[in-house]
Amino acid sequence: MKLVIAIVNNDDSMAVSSALTRHNFFVTKLSTTGGFLMIGNTTYLIGAPDDRVEKVREILSKYSKQRSHTVTTRDSFGYGFREGEVEKEVTVGGATMFVLSVDSMEKF
Ligand code: 2BA
After folding, report:
1. What are the start-end ranges of the E strands in the chain?
2. Which of 10, 82, 92, 100 to mutate to test the pocket of ligand 1 (most atoms within 8 A of CB)?
3. For 95, which of 16, 48, 60, 61 could close a Cys bridge (C-beta 3.0–4.6 Å)?
């Protein structure tokens, strides 16, 4: 058993949620905020048998798109900006996926 933690852009979360449930995954959705851009994203907790993790990866990569996002000096407290620079582009996503081994899972 694995626990997949996946961080997805809010704009992709409807498509990701419906694909996961359509493929019979049990999913918990959390409303989260990225520490760098300080804007909302969606974090999924997905408990899945080892042999179904590849399907989760496939769904996430299919429905999570890369986006370019303009960061201004007001975002992230101006981290990483050179003097005189007022904005720059960062590439966000598709999804960021962590896979953790689970010792046990019980429902009562
Ligand atoms: P944010 O922290 O808001 O980061 C948004 C995007 O800003 C990142 O896209 C990356 O392109 C850039 N970025 C983040 N931290 C940076 C830094 N210290 N210096 C320069 N650029 C930076 P993604 O890498 O696709 O990440 C999208 C979201 O996924 C992140 O939103 C965060 O919520 C989460 N995330 C990504 N990697 C993570 C990690 N190792 N641990 C926990 N959360 C992570």
Report:
1. 2-9, 26-33, 40-48, 67-72, 87-92, 96-101
2. 92
3. 60
